[in-house]
Design a protein that fits this description.
alpha+beta
Length: 239
């Protein structure tokens, strides 16, 4: 193999490894992440393509007391009992389908059951499940929490572009030995996020993301989700 082919092969392996090794980590070590590393990850990720080069992403990077303060405020709201007739919290946008159908409902149930089984939570343990969901708002103890927003005037194309930006962040993090967990749970607390971070009314919360080093001792980090084989979602057409 010549030098160029060898370099191409190495680059291919590195990219593939970052993609395949990316997982949603739900327990992090307290090990700090250098601000220059965070900045470089976001700088690299911003090379994501976007229609007309609009670059629709905005990021609030939280660590230390700022991260803890936001987590505490959301957890207080999450853990406060609601009156029986109180309306549910309104999300910043509709993330999940209003009506679940196959095969999506089965996939959703499976990942939930697999996670709860690892954690030793029995079916019907609503308190345990609620506590686990609440860990989202602590960014699963990651030292860095990211909150992503988008201008309200932007349309679906910019949201597609945003997904590529988020994926770039997760892959750039993996290339540096870091782990992440993208978190839609935060969209239900956009009012608290807006107040705490000074997010202008023209922006809406897209999601949060935990960033740090995975805790290898935690059982929840053993969760490995399945993927549909190619035959289930690809159709090759040549003629």
């Amino acid at each position: 193999m010549n030098k160029q082919a060898s370099e191409t092969s190495s680059a291919q392996q590195a990219v593939d490894a970052a993609i395949v090794s990316r997982r949603s980590i739900r327990a992090f070590l307290p090990t700090p992440v250098a601000q220059e590393d965070i900045a470089r990850i976001l700088e690299v990720a911003a090379r994501a393509p976007s229609g007309a080069n609009m670059q629709p992403w905005k990021v609030y990077v939280l660590s230390g007391a700022a991260r803890q303060r936001l987590s505490r405020r959301i957890l207080d709201a999450y853990e406060t009992p609601k009156a029986p007739d109180a309306p549910a919290r309104t999300a910043s946008y509709t993330y999940y389908p209003r009506q679940w159908t196959a095969p999506f409902i089965e996939r959703r149930r499976k990942i939930g059951l697999d996670l709860y089984q690892l954690l030793g939570l029995e079916r019907g343990d609503t308190a345990g499940m609620a506590a686990q969901h609440g860990r989202n708002f602590q960014f699963f103890d990651a030292p860095v929490g990211l909150i992503f927003t988008i201008e309200r005037v932007l349309e679906q194309g910019s949201w597609l572009d945003y997904g590529m930006f988020l994926q770039n962040i997760m892959l750039a993090a993996r290339a540096r030995g870091l782990d992440t967990c993208p978190q839609a749970a935060f969209i239900h607390y956009h009012d608290i996020i807006r107040d705490e971070l000074g997010v202008p009314a023209s922006e809406m919360v897209v999601c949060g993301m935990a960033l740090g080093y995975a805790d290898p001792a935690k059982v929840e980090n053993r969760l490995s989700t399945e993927r549909e084989p190619l035959a289930g979602f690809v159709k090759f057409i040549a003629t």
